[in-house]
Design goal:
alpha/beta, 19% strand, D-Maltodextrin-Binding Protein, domain 2, Peripla_BP_I, receptor, 3-stranded parallel sheet, 35% helix, elongated, single chain, Rossmann fold
Length: 436
């Protein structure tokens, strides 16, 4: 069926094909396009192998993921990945042939994790979730890992599967403080994260769309003005990163053909060139000119700077890094090929710190006489009025002099704070400060 659909497009005399592939159709599509010299422009997951006539709009996440793992100093974690490989693996040794197989199939992050686990002596438990249909299976995996004291998860899947996994994280109660989930996907804003962070878990992920970009803002303004009757999703549906990549793919194609027209390059279709049913297949000689023009494009799009290397892979791009907190998502840094991961001070935090009078400060404390104690009739009171003691009076006086609002928050576990040697997470007041 796929072969027929591909051949039907070639028989129509197409100049290039814009579309998606999955892991099953990837080899067929790329082989046909390579044999017939017809470029395939795709927003699908990037291929790490060196292939011709494939223009990959989606940037690779390999380097960004490794940089983030190093930033957080993860040495023991669970890796959930979306492939057709089955079973559980613990990465302790990897053969050269295994790495080559993974690379050809496009599993760049999986390859990078395997190599880094061996080089750095990481303890990585890997589980393929690509064949799971029943969401309850995700819950079983999460609970199994939790019994092993695993509280750090790297989830390398598409948005839909990530949302299903996180739903099971919530229902199983594995979204409390001390849990940390890194989402290896470029659509951080397309995921349902509120319920996960409500329990105190930390979530970190990546975003290819910069919401502050003038190009993005102009597009969204035009999008929202569309007729709701003709485009019912225009008003309330957030912009998907795959849609932004598709938009930019069209931009790249248009720019390439404008270049060919300026250069007066003849790209007319003649005879049976490009006929996939011919034996042997006849490549289209002008296809090389189109591929070259596509790779030469450098333009600003909704996903930032767009340019390609000699194999049609995105280069010189920037990926935003976000954390999801109870107050909402905040940008914590960015990654590019030259600077790697750059941790930044969030502008929102800076702005808020300059006007503390507009915020309610949370003061974490511990019950200990005579510093912080419950009043005898505290059950009849609310807020800070429930407490008394030296620290309570001191906080009240400081607030009066500085002019701030504050809320006393007694740490639930009654501890000052200690670091768990196994999970490397903090409890007590220190945990409150570290995890927010």
């Amino acid at each position: 069926m796929l072969m027929f659909q591909v051949c039907s497009q070639f028989s129509r005399g197409v100049y290039a094909i814009l579309g998606f592939y999955d892991r099953k159709s990837m080899n067929t599509l790329t082989s046909f396009c390579g044999a017939l010299h017809t470029s395939f422009i795709t927003p699908s997951f990037p291929i790490d192998a060196d292939v011709q006539f494939v223009i990959q709009m989606r940037p690779g996440l390999r380097g960004a993921v490794l940089s983030l793992l190093n930033h957080y100093k993860w040495e023991k974690f669970v890796y959930l990945y979306d492939t057709d490989r089955e079973g559980v693996n613990r990465f302790r040794g990897v053969s050269h042939s295994q790495v080559l197989l993974i690379r050809r199939r496009g599993f760049a992050i999986l390859q990078a994790i395997m190599e880094s686990a061996v080089a750095n002596n990481w303890q990585v438990t890997a589980r393929s979730v690509g064949n799971i249909v029943d969401p309850i299976e995700y819950r079983r995996i999460i609970e199994e890992m939790d019994r092993r004291q695993e509280k750090r998860f790297l989830i390398d899947c598409e948005v839909g599967r990530i949302n299903s996994i996180l739903e099971q994280v919530v229902t199983s109660g594995k979204n409390g403080r001390g849990y940390h989930y890194i989402l290896a996907n470029l659509g951080f804003s397309n995921m349902s994260l509120d319920r996960v962070t409500s329990g105190g878990a930390n979530i970190t992920g990546f975003q290819i769309i910069n919401p502050d970009s003038p190009i993005v803002q102009q597009f969204l303004q035009r999008w929202e003005r569309l007729d709701e009757r003709e485009f019912p999703e225009a008003k309330n549906t957030p912009l998907k990163y795959t849609s932004a990549l598709t938009h930019d793919a069209i931009l790249v194609i248009a720019e390439a053909f404008r270049y060919l027209r300026r250069q007066r390059v003849d790209v007319s279709r003649r005879g049976s060139a490009g006929d996939c049913l011919a034996n042997p297949a006849v490549p289209w000689s002008q296809g090389i000119d189109i591929e070259r023009a596509l790779k030469m494009v450098q333009v600003q799009g909704m996903t930032g700077n767009i340019q390609f290397d000699t194999f049609g892979r995105r280069s010189n791009y920037t990926i935003e890094v976000y954390e999801m907190k109870a107050a909402g998502p905040r940008k914590i840094g960015y990654w590019n090929e030259y600077q790697k991961f750059v941790y930044i001070m969030d502008p929102q935090v800076t702005n808020e710190s300059s006007s503390v009078e507009n915020r309610t400060i949370v003061v974490t404390t511990i019950m200990e006489a005579p510093y912080v104690m419950y009043k005898k009739n505290h059950m009849l009171m609310d807020g800070n009025d429930r407490y008394e003691g030296y620290c309570v009076d001191l906080a009240s006086e400081i607030a009066k002099h500085v002019g701030i609002r504050y809320k006393l928050s007694v740490v639930p576990d009654g501890k000052y704070g200690a670091r768990d040697p196994e999970t490397k997470t903090w409890n007590g007041m220190v945990g409150e400060l570290v995890y927010g």
